[in-house]
Specification:
The protein has helices at residues 3-6, 30-38, 57-70, 84-93, 106-143, 150-160, 165-188, 196-234, 237-243, 248-285, 291-301, 304-330, 336-368, and strands spanning 9-12, 18-25, 46-48, 52-55, 77-78. With 370 residues, it is mainly alpha-helical. Strands 1, 2, 3, 4 and 5 form a five-stranded mixed beta sheet that branches.
């Protein structure tokens, strides 16, 4: 067979609306196929492809694209019996129908809500299962202390705790000052400005210090955990760890969770001090309450149980933030888009869980009289 017989060609006869295909319309002739279709005359209504010697998927796809550009329907092409099954199969998988438009009816809204609830319930079950796995492997460290990674734990303690000290102290100080200022404006109408000391003290010791610290670490630390572990998953480093016979939970999860368990209570205590100093600053410079009087009233009215209530919630929040951040990182599927989606999900889940759990804990402690 000559070289000319191999080249794909479009031949036109006396009828300007009809054309005949010859040659080999295959991947090996891809450049010639594109040139032949580009040189095809306008106004074609029927294409006879029974003269094609060889045809593969590239040729069929090129002809389908040509038909869409020229506004031809499938019936305009006539293939021989040998090529028709290939054309039919590719036409089925390359269906270019437009996507279904999003519906806004009540039924569709309920369906989307149901799918969201089902997905969130799956996330809850995965978190509970991951919590059980981490607790079992942390308990295993008692029998096998050699599995504990001290150096990574100290490294994460520095990143999680020491690097977050300025941010936690500044925000808690400012929030304490704002609470004192707003509370004084309301209490001044009742001649009870001095009660701003109790307002700032109790609110920060019980709620605001631990809540603000947990939210800061949920946004700062959980996202870092997810992004780091997720990038390791996408680069197949976690698979390499498993291939070496090591446990990713021991290497990646337990050091991070341990660092949070140690540093979050310490940061919470620092947040308490900063918030109280914020209230003291407003009392001294904005409410004409001397620092000695402010501190004396705080000493007379403050109960240590408020501080213990706040500190008791810190390890629980630390465990949840660490687990969510590490779990979302391990669930990355390997693409950059997945890393971004899981990082966003870890921040949203961590903050939401912290706020919801803090609300229930506050009601429970109040009902118990603590």
């Amino acid at each position: 067979m000559s070289e000319r017989d191999l080249q794909p060609r479009i031949e036109t006869g006396q009828d300007a609306g009809a054309a005949r295909l010859t040659g080999q319309w295959t991947l090996a002739q891809a450049e010639s196929v594109a040139q032949a279709l580009k040189a095809a005359p306008d106004g074609l209504q029927a294409v006879d492809a029974t003269g094609v010697d060889r045809l593969d998927s590239l040729g069929v796809l090129q002809l389908m694209r040509f038909a869409r550009h020229r506004g031809l329907d499938a019936g305009a092409f006539h293939f021989n019996d040998e090529h028709q099954p290939l054309v039919t199969a590719i036409g089925d998988v390359a269906d270019d129908r437009p996507r279904r438009k999003r519906e806004y009816g009540v039924a569709e809204a309920l369906a989307r809500l149901g799918r969201a609830v089902h997905g969130n319930w799956g996330e809850v079950l995965a978190l509970v299962a991951f919590l059980g796995e981490v607790l079992v492997k942390m308990a295993r460290l008692v029998r096998q202390p050699g599995r504990f990674r001290l150096t990574p734990t100290v490294h994460h303690m520095e990143q999680v705790g020491l690097d977050a000290v300025p941010l936690v102290a500044l925000l808690c100080y400012l929030v304490g000052a704002v609470i004192a200022f707003l509370g004084a404006n309301v209490l001044r109408d009742f001649g009870a400005t001095q009660f701003v000391v109790e307002l700032v003290t109790i609110s920060f010791l019980r709620e605001f210090a631990v809540l603000l610290t947990a939210i800061i670490l949920a946004g700062r630390t959980a996202s870092a955990f997810t992004a780091h572990i997720g990038s390791m998953v996408s680069r197949e480093e976690v698979d390499a760890i498993r291939a070496l016979g090591l446990d990713p939970v021991d290497l990646l999860v337990i050091p991070r969770v341990t660092a949070l368990l140690v540093m979050l209570p310490l940061l919470t205590f620092l947040g308490m001090i900063a918030g109280l100093l914020g209230g003291l600053s407003v009392g001294a410079f904005g409410l004409d309450i001397p620092p000695q009087q402010y501190l004396a009233r705080m000493q007379d009215t403050m109960d240590l149980k408020h501080m213990w209530v706040g500190l008791a919630k810190a390890p629980v929040f630390a465990m949840l933030i660490g687990l969510i951040g590490c779990l979302e990182g391990l669930q990355v599927t390997g693409t950059a888009q997945s890393v971004g989606e899981r990082t966003t999900s870890s921040v949203v889940q961590s903050i939401s869980v912290v706020i919801i759990l803090d609300a229930f804990a506050a009601m429970w402690f109040m009902e118990m009289g603590w």
